[in-house]
């Protein structure tokens, strides 16, 4: 059963519209809430006139910071620690300053439009190319200084020193964040669009001074998250607070525009890279200095240097991470964090180095393959990158690309490749399996279906462990009354909750075997349960981390270093007159541990490749320099890939692999891996097509035309 | 908009203060008593069933379906015609329900994702093809994609990969199931 392509068990609910997402919960007596955002990026609220709003028919209440209850202090996993509507300070445009509650959505929207906010505005800080400041360290993305980097760079036979820039980008999941909150005394129910329901109880408990056990989160389906629904964002707290004040359930759905300033995004990242190698291409030194924007009072470090710790064997390393404060909302993790930006810079620079060496870029990568973890010298838990390179190159015809056509009508064709890699993040997880004496089983896990295939592969894993048909397994999920299955982010769910389900199924089988006094190897659990007269047996499974940690990156604290690997090969067309860039075909080949369901895994990787195609060629969220606002806050002016942009010819290959060091299941994560390397491969292919090296994303026609005409 | 101008106040440029911001720019002075929208009566057909509604004139088809009829399969991704998550059929034509007022639907037949399956409850070929080809991940765009795909085929646009890609581009999918969506639409078209 594991390793088989089965179609999604939640498919029927999704194609018929029966799958309920957060905003689809219509509760009796619900009030609709609409937020009013600050009109400026930096300053103070002087006054808020709610009189006109309160006169709108259907408006029940307008809340501002002066009548909002004071919240208790919050800590992680609250995304931000300085919550809005607690004072009159404005630190970014769009931060909530009022909430209109009404009997209908239409009335609430009209009311929100009638609230008049007077604010004193001061010039906002915007991106300004500063050296940045040293962030508070979080045990990830640390600076590193090893070996004589300046000396080695000086002595190098070949050297590349360049700056690579990527603009801020928003997640733009198709489902805007939504929270429906209802109180029963001191008990809070939340129907929420989340990637990690268990992140809410401790935060809500701190805010409202209640017991975390009294917070229940119900979230079976989430309409995409990509990181922006991971931690707890203020609108979730504001919805619950409004419901408490009003004494009625409240539904708060962010508008598309509000998604730009009320949840996170991937920040602007500037990277300076210096690579030096000997005459054969062996890397001698790597310097990687990263600055990313963050908000005024809170810090997000976009740890792009992580890739330089892990991908290549480099004796001398110098890595720095800095942040630049701007009057914008706080950035957050976005598919793929760290190595997403990091691979854009490092894998572009490697291509430039290969050109200097007159070496095939694939051979340059092979020459610098890291046999062990370059920083700690630990063995890899598993690493089949060389197999992934070989199979990807074969499927693409990389070595034979010299014989392929270079023109197609007006299009000039280019080929590019890059390595892909992602740190392995792990989270603990628990699950239950209930065996029934009719031969069926139920998986119980408080995980969420955000589209990654979790609710299909968990029954698959259970069925595989029990030796039964997957049709006999059902799943209960998306509810914090179920076992804490950990978050669905950081590409960690399959490892964590997948392993927990496998262990729970084994535990249940062992219990039946013990009761029936039969060896587990030959056990027919249903027959044995009927014979001993037990209708149901419950097994528990737990995936734990060293030292019972709540998070583990890169196998820290274990004898092994952990990463996932791969390579992406692309063919692009560039129209030299119009500057247009088109994807013609792509091959991605990966070493990422055991693949539970190749069908859903392929979809996830395909989605990752297309995600980065968007980053490479179209996506950017610009902060308007005078007012500090996001320049565009909608899907009409922020380009993301559409169907017409994407050819069918995307091939995904997984190397056969089983990484039992990373998880008992043998799996690792793939949710973010596909979204690494692609942007560099695109830039490399564009250079191959027209000889123009773009070092600032996105690769827009205007940038190519400028250089093509000069 | 003179009312809003008269309400605007400017502070002297004292200290670091550089100005005053107002929102919304067009807010008018509060009228006396409660403001109220005009009401309209609408009779139409939704998924084969007659519907009569007494609603505010400004009510969109999308909000009416979702908030008042509990037909929540149709999704709101942008509320301004940019994403296609709200796609429904109006007299057989695909339309963005967020851009239509219910008041415009007088006498019209509306089909949502809940009404696209066969009368006996078995799946529409497009729905089955979406499952078979793994043409979704989170599924949030899927109701709109499914309805749009059914229309795309009926329009005769599902003739080639290039044609499907073009005619399905009004439906965004951030999970980026595009290659699988294209394959599913072509497969369903072959069966239709
Ligand atoms: S919600 Fe109607 S097009 Fe986006
Ligand atoms: S399946 Fe998630 S947006 Fe299309």
Automatic annotation (TrEMBL), chain A:
SMART domains: Ald_Xan_dh_C. The keyword Ligase does not apply. SUPFAM superfamilies: CO dehydrogenase molybdoprotein N-domain-like, Molybdenum cofactor-binding domain. The keyword Signal does not apply. Keywords: Molybdenum, Oxidoreductase. This is Xanthine dehydrogenase family protein molybdopterin-binding subunit. Residues 16-123 form the Aldehyde oxidase/xanthine dehydrogenase a/b hammerhead domain. Belongs to the xanthine dehydrogenase family. PANTHER family: ALDEHYDE OXIDASE 1-RELATED, XANTHINE DEHYDROGENASE. Pfam families: Ald_Xan_dh_C (PF01315), MoCoBD_1 (PF02738), MoCoBD_2 (PF20256). It comes from the Bacteria. InterPro entries: Ald_Oxase/Xan_DH_a/b, Ald_Oxase/Xan_DH_a/b_sf, Ald_Oxase/xanthine_DH-like, AldOxase/xan_DH_MoCoBD1, AldOxase/xan_DH_MoCoBD2, AldOxase/xan_DH_Mopterin-bd_sf.
TrEMBL record, chain B:
Keywords: Iron, Metal-binding, Oxidoreductase, Signal. It comes from the Bacteria. Residues 40-116 form the 2Fe-2S ferredoxin-type domain. The keyword Iron applies. Pfam families: Fer2, Fer2_2. InterPro entries: 2Fe-2S-bd, 2Fe-2S-bd_dom_sf, 2Fe-2S_ferredoxin-like_sf, 2Fe-2S_ferredoxin-type, 2Fe2S_fd_BS, Aldehyde_Oxdr_Iron-Sulfur, Beta-grasp_dom_sf, TAT_signal. Gene3D superfamilies: 3.10.20.30, [2Fe-2S]-binding domain (1.10.150.120). This is (2Fe-2S)-binding protein. It comes from Steroidobacter gossypii. The lineage of its organism: Bacteria, Pseudomonadati, Pseudomonadota, Gammaproteobacteria, Steroidobacterales.
